[in-house]
Amino acid sequence: MQASENNRSFTQLIEFEIEPHQQPALVLALSAQTEHLARQHRGFLSASIQASDDGRRVLNYLQWQTREAGEAAFRSFESGEEDFWQLIRAHQAKAVTFGSFQVLHSLERSHDNALHCSLVGWR
């Protein structure tokens, strides 16, 4: 199934498998890199960095207005000053898994405690 062209929101998920002692440093490095991407690239919507309780995984979630914006930012990340592959080596990631997704449904709570839902049709 494919999302309709009306929805072009795009999410990148990058999961790192690491040794627990590497988790804090990787989280800090990803935080800095993610803030840099957000400032430097148009189309940024949101990001989060999540750490597993056992210390063995870190998940970097980046959401962009369009696939093109996300891919352009990632190309920059791959070849930037602190390039992505150096980041992987520096934090001794055992495995890195990439995923790209179109957003089809989202649910958010606003400041006034109301729920807002967005659902995109299929074509």
UniProtKB/TrEMBL annotation:
Residues 10-76 form the ABM domain. SUPFAM superfamilies: Dimeric alpha+beta barrel. InterPro entries: ABM_dom (IPR007138), Dimeric_a/b-barrel (IPR011008). This is Antibiotic biosynthesis monooxygenase. Signal peptide: none annotated. Pfam families: ABM (PF03992). One of its GO terms (molecular function) is monooxygenase activity. Keywords: Monooxygenase, Oxidoreductase. It comes from the Bacteria.
